[in-house]
Amino acid sequence: MIRTWKVMRFCAQTSVQIRFNRQFGVASCLQQKVAQPLCAPRGARVSEKTPEVPSITPDERVQKQPATTEPERSTTEWGAEDELLNNRKSIPNLKVSELLKDVPRTKLRPERERKAVKPAPVHRKTAIEKDTLQILQHRYQDPNESEERYDKALKVRYTILQSNDVRHRDLMMLIGSRKNRERERMLVLEGRRLIMDGYNAGLRLEAIVTSDLKLLADLAFKPKLKGCPIFLVKRQTMMEWSSLTTSPGLIGVFGEPSNMSELVTRNAAGSKRLPVTVVCDNIREPNNLGSIIRTCAAVSVREVILLKGCAHPWDLKCLRGGAGAHFRVPIYGPIETYQLPEHMRPSSIFVVADNKKPNDERNGFRWKHYDRIDYASGDHVVLVIGGETYGVSDDIRSFIHQLAQDGEQQQQPQQDRKFLAHIPLANGVESLNTASALSVILYEMRRALMQLEDTT
């Protein structure tokens, strides 16, 4: 106890400054409480011992700040620093914001905010994105102009067509849109064989688009190409315009004839037509429809009627599947069901090709094998075939039943005018392809009708 009072008395009387590492030690607290300069009220100092503190700017404070190696400081500086640190008083003209002006902002942020920001991941373009970008740059950023040239080997003039040409846009819209072709009354045929078929059928050639001039040498009507516009485009452009996976590199644009029936009649003048009408119900696949038209032209039926819901007969894929048969058989439609009686004959017999339900004799249809039907029992045969998935709809069967009843009222009642043709299948096969089934039935019809004609 005596030693403690001795230390307190010594600290109060001595003028020696004692420096401690921590400001919260016992000696520091005693010195703050007992020292005479700190006994004055807040905001005031004894004038004899503590002079008034002048206003100091941050720059002057940095210049007057003693070095860290100085062994000791004055009592006034120590008291001001201690009061600032412990918030004992506010020194005039001294603000914390001024002290923090020279401190870098990065040092004031928390440690978690000073972490390095991760760079954004670099997006690597896929192959599809690269091809799309190349197509767009080729289409919209081509600075070149179209150029007219002459080929000495083929002896034809052609145009190197660029994407910024108006004709490039017109051809792209014409080839890619069926509505534009119908409005402009144009037909587009792709490939050497189909172009030759259209030319031989009598269509008027308007333009040829190719990606290689050597392909023109395969056309049989080379001498007549002098008056036809020929456009040379890039291979990438031809792949965009083509409806096929691998483009043949040759597209022909033909004018649609004003009278297609007259053109078909002229092309089929050497063949005798069978009294058969083929009605297609809900044939949605263009390739199948093209094959059906091709078979009908080969058998030489009288006409082909497409009901609404079928693919369009002048679709590019349908034209390719038909292989030129569109110009050799009359095609009507797609039409509505109520327009069907306009193409029927009073004494016709109706044959529906449907294997979905065996022994199905609804609406008066007789179920028979396709080769056991008497196709010569009527003056005309109407063969109805449906899509591969759904077959002939019930509405069409009811409509055919009504047509048969109307015919019986006008003519003498006849038996067995409505047949359901059945094709027997083996090995668990449920059905044939639409075009294949039609071929089987049509050629059996042709055999029966030709045999009847020979006997009479």
UniProtKB/TrEMBL annotation:
A GO MF annotation of the entry reads: RNA methyltransferase activity
Highest taxon above the source species: Eukaryota
Note the InterPro entries from the entry.
Alpha/beta_knot_MTases (IPR029028), Ribosomal_eL30-like_sf (IPR029064), rRNA_Methyltransferase (IPR051259), SpoU_MeTrfase (IPR001537), tRNA_m1G_MTases_N (IPR029026)
Record has Transferase as a keyword: yes
> What's the short name of a Pfam family annotated to this entry?
SpoU_methylase
Q: Cite the entry's keywords alphabetically.
A: Methyltransferase, Transferase
Q: Which residues form the tRNA/rRNA methyltransferase SpoU type domain?
A: 276-403
In its UniProt record, which GO terms are filed under biological process?
Answer: methylation; RNA processing
* Name of this chain's protein: tRNA/rRNA methyltransferase SpoU type domain-containing protein
Species of the source: Anopheles epiroticus
